């Protein structure tokens, strides 16, 4: 009956043996991770990519020019492997999101199939026991329309925002109907792939964990530091993540309205935008079990 305003909960890397049913009914819980709790006996996922030595990764230049980005669970640099340019993420040992070995397991299970489903999976994993470093070899994200590189969809929260992403002004991006619809279609494609095919909950579905094409809205979901194998919590975990999808949808529609007001098109509304607006109440339903599945959302949006 308590914790009705709780939105984010990190329980990874403990010795939790059971999760109360009440946890899965909290009306605002949106971002949850439970990985690394061995007593929960979450199913182990099959690794579908090779394990390589870190020495197989070749440098492509100095550290500054090779740097691609960093997040809570590690940093990403450009390297060469198997005669092609790749992105390599070195995963930190333990963060508030989870353990390195759990993130490696998720990446290995997603494998190479992710990209066609708008998820940045991996080509290989590496574990250097001498240096105590492990990580993943990923495909580089293809450029967007006009050859422009994809950018972070938003910036992560600070202590002031707590759970809300930051959306700085971006003159290269127009939140029109096509942009918003493309983004949400790719988002539901990525999430339905994770939940229905890989058996994984992302745990941190935020705009700051998404790369987007500013011209079209096409996107890729990345970063599995908070992800977990769902196991016996399959349906419950999905319904929590549907709320995260609803949060992103709401944020994008707010920016679409601001764009429409700026261009004096506020009174015009396409059928696609009306369809998206109608999804918000169901995705954020206080009755968690009543929320749609990602499979149902995919049918609606496609």
Automatic annotation (TrEMBL):
<dbReference type="InterPro" id="IPR051681">
    <property type="entry name" value="Ser/Thr_Kinases-Pseudokinases"/>
</dbReference>
<dbReference type="GO" id="GO:0004674">
    <property type="term" value="F:protein serine/threonine kinase activity"/>
</dbReference>
<dbReference type="InterPro" id="IPR000719">
    <property type="entry name" value="Prot_kinase_dom"/>
</dbReference>
<protein>
    <recommendedName>
        <fullName>Protein kinase domain-containing protein</fullName>
    </recommendedName>
</protein>
<dbReference type="GO" id="GO:0005524">
    <property type="term" value="F:ATP binding"/>
</dbReference>
<feature type="domain" description="Protein kinase">
    <location>
        <begin position="62"/>
        <end position="302"/>
    </location>
</feature>
<dbReference type="InterPro" id="IPR032675">
    <property type="entry name" value="LRR_dom_sf"/>
</dbReference>
<dbReference type="InterPro" id="IPR011009">
    <property type="entry name" value="Kinase-like_dom_sf"/>
</dbReference>
<dbReference type="Pfam" id="PF00069">
    <property type="entry name" value="Pkinase"/>
</dbReference>
